[in-house]
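We treat protein structure as text, and this decision shapes the records that our systems exchange. Because each token names a local backbone shape, the row as a whole describes the fold. An entry from our holdings is shown next, in its original layout:
>
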Amino acid sequence: ELEEVVVVSRLEDPQVETAEMGAAKISARQLRATPVIFGEPDIIKTLQHQAGVAEGTEGLAGMHVHGGETDQNLYMLDNVPIYQVNHLAGLFSAFNTDMIRYADFFKTSFPAKYDGRLSSFTDVRLRDGDTDGHHGSARLGLTSGAFSIGGPLGDNTTYAAGIRRSWLDVLTVPLMALANAHEEDEKIDIHYYFMDLN
């Protein structure tokens, strides 16, 4: 008599795990591997590479899903709706990708509890602290820098924190000096930057 043989296989592609049409799970690894503008990882730019998604104006953060407008997309960050998803007129995403664990993206047939939008739903989840030890990372880009830390706080609690700041205000100082060199009456003074805390 032959013994029973059990064959077990594991699916490596998260897109094959469910039968949901038009759904994709974007991992932190995929975010870091996507080509980006100014060296700044961006969840919106990563989603623009999905089938059925077209970017709006080139280089900006808007996306058109199945022909819909950019305001017909719903974004949530840990179950909180996000209404302004970009900085500097769409050049930078408002999501600090160093703190993202994953994002679920639904182009069609998204859950009914996420109503109010016609085109898509993006559910972004922040990463948790690490129970194994304290970790930190830093990133410097052409227009911004970021720092994140995480680790355990006792036996059953963890922490994760991140900060991102642009230095667009520093980069514009020489340009403003040139613009103001010939103006006596009206001086141009622009100090724009953004900062995210998670």
